[in-house]
Structures are given as C-alpha cells and as structure tokens.
C-alpha cells in the first residue's frame, strides 16, 4: 500500500495518504485520497475547479444525500435500463438512476422531478426518440433498418450476428448534474432472429421512456394520462409474461399481446 500511497501529501479532508499516480486534484494541484474522491458526484464542473471549501460543502451534501437515501427516499416504481434502473418515488417526487459516472452507486444522487427537463434515446449514436419539457409528445425518428452494416461474426456459432446498442441521455437542472448518460442495453441475434429481438428491446425501452415523460410533465394532465397508461401497460405485460412462463399461452400469443398493448 505504501508503494502507491504518498503519506507526505495527506488528503486535506481526512488526512489519509493520497495516490502517487492519477490522484484526483482540486484547485492548486492539491491531491485528495481515493476514499474522498469516490464520494464525489458532480458533472457540471471539473473537480480541479473546486476550492477546499467547495469540496467540503460538496462532501457534506453527499453525506446528506446518503441519509436521504436511507431515511426519505421510498421508490414505489423501478424500471430496468441496461445495467442499472430508474427508481421513482412518486410520493416525494424524487428519482435516482445509479451510475458509475455519478460516483458511489450505493449513494446515487437524488433528483427532484422538477429538475428533469428532457431526454433522448440513442441507437448507435443516432437519436431515435426525444422529449423536452413543454412538448406535447415524444418525437420518434426510428433508424433505417440496415442490418448488413451491423454484422458481427460469432466464431463460436460460426455465423454472423447483428447487434444494435442503445443509450439514454437525461437532461437536468440539478446544481451538480446537467446531464447523465446510461447504457440502455442492446439487441443482438442472428440475421433471421434479430428483428424479433430488436422489436422486443424497443418495446421495453418504450415503457421506460413513458415513465420518464411522466416525470418531466408530472403537473400536466395530458402527461399524467400517459403515466397512468404506462403503469397499466407495464402491469398487463407482467401478467401475460407470467402466463407465458407458466405455459398457459404461447410465445406467439404473448408477442401479439405485447404488440397490442404497446400499440406498435
């Protein structure tokens, strides 16, 4: 540990040794320890622009955030997004989305509904869906289906596979974050089966974006209707998935019901 830690340059926050290599630094090239650096969650300014007083205030705010996660935040809805999830507390009008880019994922920043002002959904770096506060409905611009340009050779299966990745961008007016970015998963499959996998992934993402639309326009009657519909659709899909898993309905019947519920 001593080989990689410089005890001659203690952290100005806790007094512990700081990393000899790739240390996080604040104004004046002052290094801080790895533990204090891990607690930081900010994207609107660079940590190097922090004064020592700024850092102390920020870490105090992060401690307060941890207490709110433990004692106040009570999510009643959760939607999977790639490797993480969108957690919504409708009673307190708060949400979280644990991401590595936001620091400690056990203490994700709590955002207020009013701080979320827009989102866009990307497919292979092209925006396919967008919604901003004040819009009447999401703007959808699906990509052209050109699988030949997406081929990836699968050596184990000795065949070519098609793959598409998705990304979700959330735009905020939070003091620490103006934008957070999350992987939204991917769709992949053989040339014959890809379209089904692709459509299913888009259906799942549509449920997520409907929930996000409801957060952005929570005070709008029109958007509240969308939110209520999203809950009904998600509940019905879960019921039909349970029937599928139990062998009561076939995969084809389940796919038809999904298409009907999602109106696609």
Question: Short description, anyone?
Answer:
Helix content is 33%, strand content 29%. It has 264 residues and is an alpha+beta fold. It folds into two domains: 5-70, no CATH class; 74-262, no CATH class.
Question: Can you give a write-up of this model?
Answer:
The protein has helices at residues 34-39, 52-71, 194-216, 221-245, 251-262, and strands at 5-10, 17-19, 25-26, 30-31, 77-81, 84-89, 94-96, 111-112, 116-123, 126-132, 139-140, 151-154, 159-172, 179-190. It is an alpha+beta fold. The protein has two domains: 5-70, no CATH class; 74-262, no CATH class. Strands 9, 10, 11, 12, 13 and 14 form a six-stranded antiparallel beta sheet that branches. β6 and β7 form a beta hairpin. α3 runs antiparallel to α4 (221-245) and α4 (221-245) runs antiparallel to α5. It is elongated, with a radius of gyration of 22 Å. The chain starts with a strand and ends with a helix. The relative contact order is 0.09. Mean pLDDT is 84; it is low at 219-224.
Secondary-structure topology with pairs:
Blueprint: E1 5-10, E2 17-19, E3 25-26, E4 30-31, H1 34-39, H2 52-71, E5 77-81, E6 84-89, E7 94-96, E8 111-112, E9 116-123, E10 126-132, E11 139-140, E12 151-154, E13 159-172, E14 179-190, H3 194-216, H4 221-245, H5 251-262
Antiparallel strand pairs: 1-2, 3-4, 5-6, 6-7, 7-8, 9-10, 9-13, 10-11, 12-13, 13-14
Helix pairs in contact: 3-4, 4-5
